[in-house]
Give the backbone structure.
Amino acid sequence: MHIKLDRLDQLCGKNKVKKHQFLLQFLELVPPVLEQVKVGLKNRDREKVRKGIHFLAPQLSFFGISDFTLILGQLDAQPPASLEKLKGTIEQSLLKINKAMAEVRQMI
């Protein structure tokens, strides 16, 4: 699995309604920002990519997907990594996140 629910299970316990709400929120928040990151990559808009990754990193990390946290560290490093250097890593992360969203859709 690409998504890990350990933290969600700890937070929600046996409350299936609350867990379902968190998973729905994940599916509402993540796709539009992923699209923003994709558009930013296509247009070589480093700031758009950085903002999208910055917004999503905590949410994804909560679900066990730390890719964007690591990429954000490289984008914010001194000197910062170039977008061209990180493009392949970001694209791989986007694929992984899409798989995680598919897993969540199957759960709900």
